[in-house]
Amino acid sequence: MAATGTGPLAGVRVVELAGIGPGPFAAMLLADLGADVVRVDRPGGPGLGVDPAHDLTNRNKRSVLIDLKVPEGPGLVLDLVERADILIEGYRPGVAERLGVGPEVCLGRNPALVYGRMTGWGQDGPLAARAGHDIAYIAVTGTLGMIGDATGGPVVPANLVGDYAGGSLYLVIGVLAALQHARAQGAGQVVDAAIVDGSAHLATMIHAMVAAGGWQDRRGVNLLDGGCPFYGTYETSDGQYMAVGALEQRFYDEFVRLLAIQDVASARNDPAAWPQLRTAVADRFRTRTREEWTALFEGSDACVAPVLSLTEAPRHPHLAARATFTAYDGVTQPAPAPRFSATPGSIRRPPALPGAHTTDVARDWDVPSLTADPAAPTPVQEA
């Protein structure tokens, strides 16, 4: 079967009510996979003020400017909703309702609509109305408390675990599952994607290990949290780092052979001797540069890899061969993922500038009210 390059979600229409963080990333993922995503931008832009020309989470989208706080605004969004399959919003609970674009009115206009709600705390509960960011959400779920050295405080994993793994990806899973139901049953529904729920769910295996007695509820002392000397990072002679993940016996045997520390290899099975093993591993890694260790472990099954920076990663031979990163419009960025044999995703547009596609969307979605509104804000023109 020939690949189409349009993505498996070609033909799916998504309305994204502009926000920050996990909502835009979720909408980008849908757009990367072929969905026609129309972002409804507000006059004045999002709260964090990111330059829209460089906001890669808005790639593959189109944008219209609608002010939901003027009388005409909600009606314009509902005109889009009537022709959409999915809507994504990331307001605090109750805000969309007050703006006139909540689930009840949207589903009243389009009963088959999937209404995706992205929040940190969820639509209900004692903290639902409170402000927050990624770090607070992963803190209360126990996820943040797992990350870091045994002798120090928790280490912040950027906003990848909460906003994007526990938030965006669960929202995408939710709206696509609800879309399947809507197409089979003709009935839409509301998807409540909360970062606290997703972040807690990500740790399911860890909770299972705690229940089985195989994980201590404190950081830096377990098999997968840096407590194990053959699953962690080590500094090299040039101040760089290597990552070691030699968990299974056969991989560990290869690791100690190439590192030349066979004399302390038996410490693997004795946690009391792990400090001695860690010292031996650390001392050896400090004898060579990252490049030299990378060359030594290349082609082996020792499960050792160099720790690269964001700018180094696209040049790694494996990632380059797979085109894990791609250059589009002069910007190097992660390519769409995952991959499909018949309907691959692609980057088709640079980040959408606010309001730049109003005329095109009005025509393609058959929503003439978008261009008929005399109070419509002036769009930012794309180059």
Q: Widest sheet: strand order?
A: 3-2-1-4-5-6
Instruction: Kindly report the oligomeric state of this protein.
Output: single chain
Q: What is the helical fraction, as a range of percent? A: 25-40%
Query: In terms of structural class, how would the helical and strand content be classed?
Result: alpha/beta
The SSE order reads EHEEHEHHEHHEHHEEHHHEHEEHH
Question: How many whole angstroms does the radius of gyration measure?
Answer: 24 Å
User: What is the averaged pLDDT score?
Assistant: 94
Number of helices: 14
Counted beta strands: 11
CA-CA gap between termini: 37 Å
- Specify the overall morphology: elongated
Strand content: 5-15%
Residue windows where pLDDT falls under 50 for at least 5 positions? none
What do these coordinates show?
The protein is an alpha/beta fold. The protein has 14 helices and eleven strands. The chain has helices at residues 22-32, 73-81, 95-99, 103-109, 134-140, 160-185, 195-202, 204-211, 249-259, 274-285, 290-297, 317-322, 358-364, 369-372; strands at 13-17, 36-41, 61-65, 86-89, 114-119, 189-194, 231-235, 241-245, 304-306, 325-328, 331-334. Strand 1 (13-17), helix 1 (22-32) and strand 2 (36-41) form a beta-alpha-beta unit.
